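Supplementary Text 2. Reproducibility record for the structural model of the 424-residue chain.

All settings were left at their defaults, and a single model was retained for analysis rather than an ensemble. We include the record here because the model underlies the residue-level annotations in Supplementary Table 4.
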Amino acid sequence: MTPPDRGAVTREGSAPRPSRWILAAIAVAAVAALVIALVVGRGGEDPPAGVDPGVEDPRIAINAGGEEVTAGDLSYGADAHAEGGRTSSATVSSDREDAEVFSDVRVGATGYSVPVPDGTYEVTFQTLENYWTEPGRRVFDVTLEGLEVLADFDPFLAAGGKDEPITRTLRTTVTDGSIDLEFDADQDQSIIAGLVVTPQDGGLARTAGTAWEQVFFDDFGSGLDDEHWWRYGGIATASGSPYSQEGVEVVDGNLVLTSRRGADGVWRGAGVGSRLNQTYGRWTVRARGERGHGITMVFLLWPTIGNWPPEIDFAEDNAEDRDMMSATVHFENGVKVHHEREIDSTQWHDYTVEWTPGETRFLIDGELWATVVDGRVPSEPMRLGLQSEAWLEGTDFFHPIDETTPAEVRVFIDSVTVETRAGS
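Retained model, structure tokens:
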């Protein structure tokens, strides 16, 4: 988990709140070839539900928990490819053209495995809460192709009530002949109403294929340029510790952020904020941190106008042994999607976030390790924050400063690279 309400003043000079392979319809034969490929790949089984060899529509649509239905221009096949669970029903307004899709659901499935040719796909997950009348009663995680894409998903909370349909569109690349969607329930059981799989062409492929153009780079070889950076000040509202501009310096070509205990016994953190604001892009920070119980290392994107939420924390450790790194996207009403992985952050690593419409992807040393695909992903200008915060004893944090913490704990930043999507 991330620390609750880590933030402070957001004015400049103060700390921000820390932390379609659409088939080219050149011939009906092309569509038929896709269907044949699917059948062969399944050892002669029927084509995947929702695929009609006589219709030029490459989409695969499954009515989870129900029979064949049509919603608008999309034909859903009867429920297929599910792993476990039982069928159930929901009460949905008949005014919706997709009411029949959401009126039948599958509860308690551990996942779906849909056979497809290798390629890039958009996966639309359709669901709702059909039983509980308050949030927190049904919570589950959704993993797509091995990556957790929805964490602590509560359909009641996400849709704003019972029997209210909601969709989440996810993107993935398949290399093993099937789209694997897995559900892991935390409270009650998973629930799904429909699943739509749409092949993507190069223009709509996931951000792994995005071309980036560098717009800013700083290796701090000439010190800290005040035209590009400003030093944190003020009090962090969560930890209660102040930020000191004296904790910011450049040493041997590294930006060094030092959290230290002063002669007065007061702990002070350090941080800098970027003056470059942009909507969407790719940020990479090469850094390492010294060990120090209660001293965090956090790299984040914060809204330009200073409101909270949203917030994108793309590298945030646990302030204990520098053995974990997390990534979190904060939404309204205290909702967040959080990921963690083991790592020795006392060593040099490149921490990267790729932020595109509806999606954030997190990489360490160029390796994708987590992604968040959600319509609530920020779409407003944001700026980079680099910080080290001192969490005092007695504060609401799981690893506060204690007797083992050195009087000074440093975070070293070798370079910062900012990119934008090519052509944007």
